Amino acid sequence: MRSPYFILVSLLLCGPALLAQDDKAKSVALFQESLKVFRHPRCMNCHPAGENPTQGQNMHPHLMNVKRGPDDHGATALKCSACHGVENNKHSNVPGAPKWALAPKSMAWQNTSDGELCKRLKDSKRTHMDMQQFIKHNAEDELVAWGWNPGGGREPVPGTQKQFGEFIAAWVASGAHCP
Asked: How many whole angstroms separate alpha carbon 10 and alpha carbon 136?
C-alpha cells in the first residue's frame, strides 16, 4: 500500500486531470496532509487559544509567564523582541525570526477540531488574507519559514516550506474543502 505522502505528491504531479476525478475527497486529503504542519508544535505554540503562548515539543507554558499583549507582541513590560531577535541566537538557544510574534487571536487554533481549523483558515475576516495571500503567506513568509529552520536542536515541521506552499495551493485549487 502506498503512503499518503506518495499519493498526495502524485496528485500534485498529475495535476488537475487527476483532481477532477474526485475533487472533494482529494481536496480533503490535501488539507489533512497539511495538518502535519498546522498541528506541529512549531506552529501550534504560536497559535494559542488563550493569552499565553506555549513552547517546546511538549507545548508547555512559555517560561516567565509570557502573555499575548494587546498587539500579539507580548505584554508592555515583556515584549517578544526583548528575548527573540530576527534570527535564532546560537549562544542562548533562544529562537528568533523576522516579525517574531504570536499569530493574531483570530488565528488561534490550539484546541480546535480539524474541521474548525479548516474553516478558520478559509475565513478572510479571521486571516486578513484572501486565499492567494494565504498561499503566499505559507509558501514564502519569513516567520512561517522558521518552522523549517528552528535551530537549537528543535524538531522542524515536516517537508519544506516550498512543498507546504504547493500543498496549500493544490488544496485551494481543488476547492479548499474541509473534513
From this structure: 22
CA 61 from centroid of its chain's CA atoms: 19
Contact at 8 Å (CB) between 106 and 113? no
Predicted model pTM: 0.86
Q: How far is CA 111 from CA 108, 114, 160, in A?
A: 9, 10, 25
Instruction: For the chain, 179 residues long, give each residue's pLDDT as a single digit of tens.
Output: 444 554 555 555 455 555 455 789 999 999 999 999 999 999 999 999 899 999 999 999 999 999 999 999 999 889 999 999 999 999 999 999 999 999 999 999 999 999 999 999 999 999 999 999 999 999 999 999 999 999 999 999 999 999 999 999 999 999 999 99
Q: Is 54 helix (H, G, I), strand (E, B) or coil?
A: strand
Distance between first and last Cα of the chain: 23
